[in-house]
Amino acid sequence: MGWNSYNALHYNIDETLIKQHVDIIANQGYLAVGYRYINLDDGWQASTRTADNKLSLIH
To answer: pTM score, two decimals?
Structure first.
C-alpha cells in the first residue's frame, strides 16, 4: 500500500509538507499495517500551459 501526496495536498506541495506527512505515516503505525510507498505527485499532468510554458493549474 502507499500514500499519494496529490490525494491529500493537490497542488499545494512543498518539502516541509511532505516531511510532515511522512513523519505522520511513520509515527502513527502505517508501516506496521502495510504502507510501504510515498508517491509524490504535484499535478504534473496538467493539460494546459502558461505563455512561458509552465504547467497551468487551472482545469
So the answer is: 0.59
DSSP H or E stretch at residue 5 = helix 5-9
Residue 59 has pLDDT above 60, yes or no: no
Residue 4 and residue 43: Cα distance in Å, rounded? 11
Residue 59: name the closest of 6, 49, 9 by CA: 49
Average the pLDDT over 21-49 and give the result.
82
Residue 59 grid cell:
482545469
HEC per residue, 7-34: HHHCCCCCHHHHHHHHHHHHHCCCHHHC
The domain locations on the chain are: 2-57
Phi, psi of 57 (to 5 degrees): -90, 5
